[in-house]
Amino acid sequence: MNLVILAAGVSSRMKRSVAEEKHLDERAADEALRKPKSMIGVGKESRPFLDYLLYNAREAGYRDVVLVVGEDDAAMRIMYGAADQRNAFHGLSISYARQRIPEGRSKPLGTADALLCALDARRNWAGGMFTVCNSDNLYSHHALRLLLESPHPGALIDYDREALEFEHDRIQQFAVVEKDPEGYLTRIIEKPSRKELLAAADAGGRIGVSMNIFRFSYDRIVPALRAVPLHPVRQEKELPPAVAMLVERDPKAMFAHPLSEYVPDLTSLQDVERVREYLAREFEDFAW
Q1: Count of alpha carbons within 13 Å of 48, Cβ hemisphere only?
Q2: Which pLDDT score is estimated for 145?
Q3: How many angstroms separate the CA atoms of 172 and 196, rounded?
Q4: Cβ atoms within 10 Å, residue 223
Q5: Residue stretches of the chain with pLDDT short of 70
Q6: Which helix or strand (DSSP H or E) is residue 199 part of?
Q7: Which among 175, 161, 176, 150 is positioned nearest to 253, based on CA atoms?
Q8: What is the pLDDT of residue 31?
Q9: How far apart, in whole angstroms, are the C-alpha atoms of residue 120 and residue 122?
Q10: pLDDT at 35 (0 to 100)
């Protein structure tokens, strides 16, 4: 019942969208500059985006949650508890793991480093399983439960590309999931070519994509997180290459659970209104 939520990014695209465009929603723009994007008030009575993800996690059956936060983040501690560990929040136990920015850098070292920070803080999880996901995607309780109840020690959600309902340019940026005939992951392809897209499609033409929600064995993923190299361009330690290491060692290391549904995304300020409409429709009677 363990969950890690990655929320320590500096929200570069969100802040850039505030600087580059004119926005009618000045409050959201101001929050985007001051807070992590998952803490922007998009729900009823300015409930933050992260609240809905935590709610879905609780409904799916998770109880022990680690939020990976930035060095100076106070917004989450104000909302979810000030203690470093085991803050009681509506049936959840919420802890924090701080991802520091190394000297000489302007932002953290990437998602693999963020997850390693969480697992170093929760060594009592060793020998068990956990789920990890982003903080700026609203994964459904169904997706979260699929991984919680998966019979496979390693797994990911394989989202139907056509069901995500995003504009074409955004969907083109999503990493494609390539699988073997039994449904096990063979590759996560970043920025796939046309040829790679066609090769990844199943017999019905379905193309699956990854939205960075995974189930891992603690003991198997930690060595990969420590060993993953810096990306040659972005100079970050990223989670997909760590997953690739697992698959290289064991072709049956990661099972891809297919799912076809929309996943609300909060990448830029342009997404705020669409997310608000979704929440008003799907969480009309939200109550913890």
Answers
A1: 19
A2: 98
A3: 12
A4: 13
A5: 9-24
A6: helix 194-200
A7: 150
A8: 77
A9: 6
A10: 81
Q: Which two tokens stand for residue 169?
A: 């340019």
Q: Measured between alpha carbons, how far is 104 from 85 in angstroms, rounded to an integer?
A: 29
User: In angstroms, rounded to a whole number, what is the distance separating the alpha carbons of residues 241 and 246?
Assistant: 9
Beta pairing partners, 234: none
Question: What is the reported pLDDT for 188?
Answer: 96
Please tell me the distance from the alpha carbon of residue 201 to that of residue 176, in angstroms, as a whole number. 9
User: Nearest to residue 73, comparing CAs of 43, 55, 50?
Assistant: 50
pTM above 0.90, yes or no: yes
Those residues with Cβ within 8 angstroms of residue 159's Cβ, 6 or more apart along the chain or in another chain: 208, 209, 210, 211, 259, 260, 261, 263
Asked whether 39 and 50 are in contact (CB, 8 A), the reply is yes
* CATH of region 2-282: 3.90.550.10
Q: Model confidence over 222-232: pLDDT tens digits?
A: 999 999 999 88
DSSP string, 102-137: PTT-SS---HHHHHHHHHHHTGGGTTSEEEEEESSB
